[in-house]
Amino acid sequence: MRKILFVVGEASGDLHAAGVAAALQRIRPEIVLTAVGGPRLAEQGVELVHRDSELGVMGFLEVLKHVPRHFLLLRRLRSMMQSGEVALLILIDYPGFNMKVAAAAKECGVPVLYYVTPQVWAWGAGRIPKLAQLVSKAAVILPFEEALLRGYGIDATFVGHPLLDRAVDMPTRQEARETLELPPDAPVLALFPGSRQQEIDRHIDDFVATAKELQRRIKGLEVVVSVAPTVALDTGRCPFRLVHSASLTVLRAADAGVCKSGTTTLEAAIADCPLVVVYRTGRISYALAKRLVKVPHIGLVNVVAGREVAREFIQDEIVPSRIADVMVDLLDRASTRRREVLAGLAEVRSKLGTPGAAERVARIASELIGATG
């Protein structure tokens, strides 16, 4: 029996792919699903041909260190596709590796559905012609991406953001605090230092220092740290309570958050949690990125809004006392700045579409399978 092959590179991609897998199992239960993925896909009963929690890496130099491992995996995936057992390849994000997998699929005559496409709007348009050559269909999750890709001849459809699927059963603030056993009226700060181990290592000391500074300024401040299932956090460096695999619950319980750049910033918008965006990478990687990145903001919440809704602290701007200065207002439930940020987050939520992204992607995949026999 021919299969659908998913390839993901990090925890968020594993989560998005698992949603699509669950929807496919409902509408096309006869199709066999296999994947390069992680625990979320495994929970759906998807056969993992490769499981690697550290596959997703960031930064130019960091990626180079993983080239040999990626080469071996790419060779294995090419062999699978050459055998004829793969009817459809579904790629989720992680363009550094997945564009190579797409090229291999093209050589083997396997159609490619790219879900959560490369952020060509950030890195310039240089990748778009290549994407147009390799991708049969693009399922995009940001509202402006559909028109951008269609302008280059790519069959792209805006499916809405997959985070909205998770938000359907999002708890109230009171329910979230009860779940996390937090005092109902205490000020609560959430820390989101990253979903990759290298992000944790670069952020955690500054995040902890910021939280300690805020505890000195705000009486009774509770601090909760959200931790992805794929990383380890040294409790010697972080004295605060750790909560695993419950990011939306943590954000709903919090009055404000310090969040690394990425999908977490959109989760904060969905959870109605004011935030600041903090991000640090290697110095060489940052210097190269400054030459290549074409957008004025790095936080997705700001990219979607088209303006700075959440204050950004990048590289040398990451000074705990300065971050705390901004967070004091966000943690004050009566402050004007907090109201302004909440209004901006509501604007972002309105642009993210409607729930059902996973179902829409699954139906696109089913149509592609049908189209290819």
Descriptive overview:
- The protein has 373 residues and is an alpha/beta fold.
- It has 2 domains: 3-160 and 356-371, Rossmann fold; 166-351, Glycogen Phosphorylase B (Rossmann fold, 3-Layer(aba) Sandwich).
- Helices cover 49% and strands 17% of the residues.
- It is built from 18 helices and 13 strands.
- The strands form 2 sheets. Strands 3-2-1-4-5-6-7 form a 7-stranded parallel β-sheet, with helices on both faces.
- α1 (11-27) crosses α18 (357-371).
- The two termini are 12 Å apart.
- The relative contact order is 0.13.
- The model is unreliable at 57-65 (pLDDT under 50).
The CATH H-level superfamily of the largest domain is: Glycogen Phosphorylase B
Average of per-residue pLDDT values: 90
Main sheet properties:
7 strands, parallel
CATH architectural grouping of the largest domain = 3-Layer(aba) Sandwich
Structural domains: how many: 2
SS content category: alpha/beta
Instruction: Kindly state the percentage of residues in helix.
Output: 40-55%
Give the end-to-end Cα distance, rounded to a whole number of Å. Answer: 12 Å
CATH C-level name of the largest domain: Alpha Beta
Task: Report Rg.
Answer: 21 Å
> In DSSP terms, counting alpha (H) and pi (I) runs of 4 or more, how many helices?
18
Number of strands: 13
Cα shape: globular
Strands of the largest sheet, in order across it? Answer: 3-2-1-4-5-6-7
**Oligomer status:** single chain
- Uncertain runs with pLDDT below 50, 5 residues or more? 57-65
